[in-house]
Batch of 4 targets.
Target 1
Amino acid sequence: MKHNICVIGSGGREHAIAWKLLQSQHVDKVIMIPGNDILQNRDRIVNVKLDKLDGPLVANVCRQYNIELVFVGPEVPLCEGISDSLKKQGISCFGPSEKAAVIEGSKAFSKDFMVRHQIPTAKYKNFTDYLEACKYIENEVDYQMVIKASGVAAGKGVLIPQDKKEALEALKRIMVVKEFGSAGQEVVIEEFIEGEECSLMCFSDGHSLQVMPPAQDHKRIFDLDQGPNTGGMGAYAPAPFVIGHQGSPRGKHGFGALIDRAIETVLQPAIDGMRKEGRPFVGVLFAGLMISRQQQIKVLEFNCRMGDPETQVILPLLESDLYEVVCACVEGRLDSIPTLKWRQEYCVTIVAASKGYPDVYPKGLPIKGIEECNSVSGITVFQAGTSLASDMKTMNTSGGRVLAVTCIDKSLETAILSAYKSIQLIQFDGMQYRRDIGQKALNYLNSQEKVQSVSYSESGVDMERGDQVVDNIVPMAKSTNRLGCMADLGGFGALFDCKAAGFKDPILVSGTDGVGTKLKIAQELDIHGTIGIDLVAMCVNDVVVQGAEPLFFLDYFATGKIHVNVATQVISGIAKGCKESGCALIGGETAEMPGMYKDGEYDLAGFSVGAVERDKLLPLLNEFKEGDVLLGIASSGVHSNGYSLVRYLVEKKSGLKYTDKCPWDSSKTIGQSLLTPTKLYVLSCLAAIKAGGVRALAHITGGGITENLPRVFPNGYQAEIKFGSWTIPPVIQWLNSLGNMKQEELLRTFNCGIGMILVIDPTQLDTVKSILESHNETVYTIGRVTKSSNSNEKPKVVYI
């Protein structure tokens, strides 16, 4: 079944939206309110004029044409709440609510919002009082300024004075003369920042987003960016100074590392921030960015809709079905559709404007050549300020920006030349257009060809992503600081002061380990938040066995390609594990090694250092006595050993998938249960050691009880373990049912429910057990120490 859809607006942007929607297999007709008498697809585009643009009147049109979905093009109706009004009428609307549209409707709100959500932007100050603003400029400003009308000003309410005198004049034009009407009731005075402007848009359903290619607009009326600001005199996409030349690494989202970073630091925080503030943003979020020579990103502004003329170069590149994307956003399921597909080409649009624009201009002038231009291969004319004369044949001008000639080609230079050749077919009195659209991009590409240098990123190593990971983990690492830490992350070596930590005559104890093939399950399920806890536990649990207090931790994260969100999740788990063990995450290494690992794969290694006073070092081998009690502390599950066998049993023997429900716990999937993090025993065991009576500890890892417990026994002694004196976890029982392992094999493969064993002086048994239980440990008395018949016999475990 095909649907009719309504598009609100009358510009070139709205023509491009209608043009793209009509390519969908789901769309029959587009009803445009008010429209602009488009010559193309006249049998499928209906223009409807209304006395005023409000929700009830638009809803009436929708009912008349059996329309269930409205696509709002311009910002003004969105800021006035048309989306909310239509929803009250039972009509879906692609475009944000009035509360969400304020991100464009008030530049003052937008700037404050960016600060609240740590989105990078220029320093600024908002004013509603003209005299206070003047006083601020005269007495406090020591930088070049940009003066912005806070409200909606059709893209023209931004003035860039060259000195304080011009700044005061600009302020007067906005707030006193009211050159931009009510938009100038409040102003934003902000720092001018240099760089290249980039228009970056994304579709959003209020939670997730899908990004569009970065474009560059040309705001000034004349060549070389001279003259007053306009709504936009032309654009091109994608912008090569952002994505690099053809053949550059495409990054996670398809447009290079810089766009990946913009998504992570600008777009996603904005979408998340709006939702958290009760303003979920559904529609297209437009971020006007400034990219410095050092590739730093700052936000100039947010808009609540698609850009014009950026839309005219973005939508021709879209291969995916626009109607399906819009429906996914409106229905809150954008993350359920495939990643958008884009043509690997360039698109250029050149705007033809009326004489006098952006000031006073004539209307009603006849236009020739639109149909002829449209007939040129690869050329599309998007109409804007156009309307049919009373004879219903002659097309006349009716606006400042009259139309845009658009071309798409694999070569940016060819696209530009074709667009300029074709625009010469268009004629109307006083027609003006810029002759340098896309020239900056050509200059950039030519300069890159001349340099012929190789960047590290071309080999697949993206230092920017690595830097972003570091930026993300710094606050996590700081949260683990403890007495003894001497420096933040970033130095060549990590420093720690044992004396400051309270030690007098310490022995340093180190431990290193990994997580093994448990990582494969985490990577397959895209669950990375707890695997870092496993890494910490495997190291610090070893350190505490020596009676030592873990002091600091270092990690090594190696991957074929850094995905910032994955690395951040993993290291957040490491930080959490450190915090719960009382040790500091003091340093680490993130290594990107394309060719060594596949994209999506990573490996981990951890390094922990602890300290114990010389006379407190464990095990106390000389104090072992027959009859000493063996206490077992329960594990949380499989922990981090034996996962090669676990994976074999699940994948080859069970007939189930990791995403299937647990046979032993219906509230979780098999994968979720198997990713239960390794238990951290540090704080409970240190408390037990401090109470006295602890002869030794054994961390039960690979090799199980059978191979790990004898490591802390002196010759001539053995451990007598009563099998069945503790509860074997259901997950291990299930794995054993699949493998039908012998008891001996089971006990030297898995921990079987015991993660740490303490050798205890019987006179201290009740005290130690009580302390462990006060730390929420489940404790079992599982056996005792016995003497061997031969005092030189190596220790072993005997199960009874």
Note: The two ends are 73 Å apart (CA to CA).
Target 2
Amino acid sequence: MVNKNTMFSHHNAYLRAPCLLLMFLVICLGIEARTIMVGKRPPSDFNRIQAAIDVAKHGDTIIVAPGRYRESILIKKKNINIQGAGKDKTYLEFDGPNLVVYVESVKKTVISNMTIAYTGVGKRSTTWFFNSEATLQNCKVTGGFYAGVYVTANSKVVIHNNVVKENQLTGLNASNSELRITENLISKNGQQGILLKSCRNSVIRGNIISKNNKDGIDVEGIGEDLQILHNTIVGNRSKGISTDNQAIIENNIIVFNGIGIEIDLKGKSSTVLGVSHNNVWRNSHHDYSKIKKPLTDLSVDPIFINEQLNDYKLRVGSPMIGLASDGSDLGAFQSRKKQTAEDIPSKPNSRQTSQIIVSNTPKPISFQDNKKTTQSTDASPEVLTKASEKPAGGLETVKLETPIFLIDTLRKQPYFIEVAQTFKLKTSKELNKVQAKPYGAKYDPKTRIFEWIPLRHQIGQVTVTFTGISSHSVQLFVWKHNLPPRISHINGKTVNRDFDKNGKLMPIKFNVREGEETHLKFSAEGIPAEQLKYTFISIPIGANADGDTITWRPSLKTVQMIRQGNQNIAEFPVLVSVSNGSEADAIDLILIVQESKSKLPTLKKK
């Protein structure tokens, strides 16, 4: 695309005439995106969808009127949109040897508002997206043999607010692609509801995944950055969620399945799990398979409105309300919006009124959005009523005041501060100056208030020293809610994780002396040490592990040295892992034993 500012700058004056001519032709000749009408009666342009696709150009929109269209359609290398009148009004059906919808090599296509059904007896999927960037939304997809929705060949597909049900094998089957699967009903399929193979950067969020004849969600093969968030996964015959790779699995309701969550890492012990804040309850065989129940997970009745009638919204008083890691409700349905400081009710005698904002405009979904996309939700009647009660003169906002701690010189334990939260501490008259304050902190000597909003890179313990007539040091511990542990230091030295040219994490080398007692103390960022458990695998003979520390005195009796340059050395690999009960981190450590200087040969002077 040509930048207008550049095109008409004095450096490009010679381009003005042809560009103005081109603009004149576009306006006069009407070279612009068109709307093509398809219907069974006039004033439609065509009575078949494929006929409209054949004449459509990039950017055109095909509007399909209510009716039943018995045909197979192909969209290839055309960035067009096809819009029906609604999934209960526009029906695209086919019973022949082809796919009902096949999309290949497109960069921007939206198919919406219709039922797409394979009605034949052949082994065909209903829809197939091949090497394409497309959106499927507000549709019903049914009847496919292999899959209702099939996505392959490095496609990027948004699948939003659809009903994908009663397909013979899989509801949604994708491989080697990137997907946003949001707010769909995926139900009563012959095998998996969702099957992903080697997919990257994908999000499964806000879906109802129920009563599929095998797994609700099955993830296989090497993938990256998979997030399974805020889903309600109910009544699937085998597993609710099954994966053999790392994934963030948060804020889901997983009940009445065969197995709730199964994670089979197949020996990949260094994989970091991100399973937290789920409600996993009454799965007939096991709630968890091949993993332990995370400390942050629940196992209680979610109290649906009526699961017998497939109504999985939450009743008033459900324990799921407000328990998600982001303060919203667990599962796919939100009974209310996330509470913020502006939603705190005012005091009875206060003039201030809490503000509740309800938006009826859904947020567009795209691959440029943040990975953890905010889910648009329907507001309850109670919230809508409150939102409409606007006081005269406009709304006022109640702001929650940050508490101010008074300095306690007898306090030994640290103050715990969450990342991005404001911390305030008021000092005494004797302590009215601050030394070595952390980055971003400020101190007002008039009010004697120390204020700090820590950032993520500042996670861990921080010491702040106040001076004046006397001196006192305050310990602060910065943490991040739901942050997996990460081994960050050995004996106070930062652990640098480097990768080789193939992207493989390189082992961390640490030098120790033969004959000298060595203490290796490990620490992890983000979580207090008392909540962590360290495991050491393949420690050298004679070494002892106690909590977060390895103690070892290498000896020539147990160490076989090799010559390296002018020095004898030996290498010992040790696997160090740390866990908080639900998530883990690990590093490969190589202890390099150096022979003591007293035993090295003396070089003779020539």
Note: DSSP finds four helices and 51 strands in the chain.
Target 3
Amino acid sequence: MKLLALFAAVFAQRAENFRNIVNKIPETFTPTAKTSTFSGAGSVQFTTSSFDKKQENLVLVWSEDGAFSSPFNIIANIRPAHSEFEKFDSEFSEDVSFSFPSDSSVAVSINVDESDSRFFYVLSFSDPFSSSDVTHSGDDFSHRANFYLGELQAGYLDVNTMIAAQQTTNGVLGDNGITVSDDLVYRQATQAELEKIGFQGPGIAVDMPNDDWFAAHRSAEYVTFATDYSSAKLMRPKNKEDVVANTKAVLEGWEVEISCGPIPEGDQSTMEVSIEAKTESDEHQSFRAPVSELIVGDKISKKVKVESWHQSTGVWCKFFEGGNLIGYTNPQTFVVNAPTELPAITATYNSPKCGFVGSGAEEEIATCAAASATFPPLFLQWKVIKADGTEELIPTKPTETFSLKLPVVISQEYKDASASCLVYQGTDPALKSAPEFVKSLSPTGSGFSLKKKTSKLDMHVIGRDVTCQSDIFGATTVAEDECSDVQNIEVTNTVNCPLETFYKEATCRIVLVGGGVPLESTYTNDECIAYDMIESNCTESAYKKCPKPDAPEELSELDEGGSGPWFLLFFVCAALGGALLVYMNRSSPNQSGPKVTDSSQSSLLDTV
């Protein structure tokens, strides 16, 4: 027992001596922090840079604010060269582990949960118990955990702006942040926008997209926001074409069915729906009721008699959950009027500013539209004749509308195809007969081009100047050119080369519009010399001696004259060889030199 007590006392005194040595460091270390993002719980994992082998002790420490200074919060002392470690903080006895990828670095794993926002860092020391002065240095980065709290929140701030936000412990998002589907462009949501909608944490905002986006994504029902851990769907936004395409001609007093759908995803028992309309002078709301009371199949359905206010900018069904607007349906408009003559109708090919997406989804190639509403109503249909003579009707039956897009998936089968808009006019609905054909229109305009897309990342590093750009759009982002597919460009994780004016490491990252896997490339300068591992300008001191350079063996032999006899022998042999050649030339009188002739008649290589 006395022996065990003695060992414990010796160990305690050694640990205290080690703490005192570490806490003598006068500097404050404030390294760049790398964040590991989790949901619920996880392990902060990192591998240190390679230290000088003389720095044989690696000390793992923590701090609350990312600044590391004396007195240090020491977790463990690690000796990679011996694959051993000594834990100093009992809190981490079961939550920290180490492995050794080399004899000068360590791989660290620390178990953390949502309550832990501390920073972790590794210092290096020479032997603290040797007779020489103790030297020290620090790793390139500190490390901390960031936890996502709860699910991703998404909703409409108003009919023109969608907001998505994620609450986190550190108020920042992970590397992938929040992504949005369907090639939508986003920006950072302002604090005022987040407060207005009632969301916590950092977030993004998606403003009303342009008409080209609607042309390529009209068939989409939902927009998806996502993080690495959760996702949320909103009904896609609507534009004026959605209103025009959903216009019906009626007579006042007719009974019409206002149908709303699809119903947003989620718990329908907690949702409410309102039917609203806005005229040029007033806003009208028919009613607001629980969704569960009005469900017919997968939609909301309500029969109403046509009133004057139905002739408005649109009758909307708006869906709410927890007081937040989570989506709204295509506006349904009504034209109340007497029978009229057929209005002017035009058909045109669309020409998106940035070109068609060509991603395998339907895109609106052309538009057939009436200049004004009419009654009886119009029915429109597209007929496409392909190069092989086959015909395709889109849609399969004429549709009651004043504006009809031609949606196709762009492929080679539509090369050299032609299209025409078929115009029909409705008959008395009481007769339930098919609409009557009126005429066919060929669209004006021609041709289309595919939208350009970034295929790779170009990265160039000169000194500390890092050029990071798209192979198609260069450094131009979508904020500068709406045709660019570059959301933003980031240069991160830069590490300076010691005592030099260039980088040891740098990472280039391009975030693309519409989410997906960002393009990333890391530059490493192999010519960066770790000056702490070699001593180019050695200065001797009482405890440090500089090595003497070894003299080359060949040089020392020359200095001592060791090669003198050999040099004399070679000189004599060369003289004898020269004399022999002279004698042989004089003994051959019939030989003559080469004769050079005119280059226009023979080669310069001819001899007589």
Note: Residues 564-586 form the longest helix (23 residues).
Target 4
Amino acid sequence: MFTEEFEDRILFAPAKIDGLSCNRLKIVTAFTDVERISSHLIKLYDGKNKEYVPNIKVDIILGMIKGAGLTEKKHKKICAQIERLNSVAGMPKITCRYIVEGKQVHSKVYVWCRGNKAVAAYCGSANYTMNAFYARRECMDACDAKEAHRYYKSLLPDSMDCFDAGLSSRLTFAAKKNVEDDVAETNLENLSWEKYQIIQPLDILELSLLKADGTETGYGSGVNWGIRKNGYKRNRNQAYIPYNMADQKKGFFPSVNPDGTYPVFKVIIKGYGAFYMRQAQANGKGLHTPESNAVLGEWIRRQLGVSDGVYITKEMLENAGGTKVLFKKYDDGIYTLEY
């Protein structure tokens, strides 16, 4: 039995190329949260073809749904996060099913498969949540992979996909969250724009949405990253915020990791929720949204009052109020972003 630092053993190690090389994880959990889902998949994505195998799929069965189990607000956040993650090429694909028949399920089981063959499994007290892996005293242990896989499959007939159009006829969402579904205030799904408007930021940083020379926005970069002159097909909302060397403020964003990658950090936008961002590209000259590079493009086009995928010009930005965005940094490591 293991009681400490079991995240790597359960969520990552079985997918390592030099280990078991598993490419499918099947999870039974009473509760989950969007930050756990996002942070897990982003790390697997970052290490694909280097540390972890490619084409990983994660399938979740969420067990505590009925009665006081799941609010409609949380259901919508789970669905929105899954849609974002599944839109990213190369990102591990994820599904989430809810138990809608029979007894509620309070089990916590993690089954790693190579193809359809169950290879390793773990069970115990830890939900697929950030608190279970970082803030609670939990105990987990290895278990028989085939038996755990059979248990997972036995629950499928009593479950329904979270995107199923008939879901509303099979369950009633809770009016308030279950006391067991304890999610930290700084979890992505709980972060509130309003809370940070009454807190003094530690620092601020204003960044231009234009090219480094300030002349225009340009094709295939910045707010128009997804729009290519050569006709190469991408999501036209894909965008990043330029963070050129001349604009970089040491210590404002998290420092680069020893392996050359950049840590994620949490950002809140008014009316648009919270999500991860990080520096990327050579010398960290772009601020990206790893959950989906279309997040920033969708947001800025809403601020401009134009349709998705529209090419953004310098003139459009100037007419809407300016060519810059503002980051504010707070002492709990949270940032806000405004245009």
Note: The chain has two domains: 7-184, 194-338.
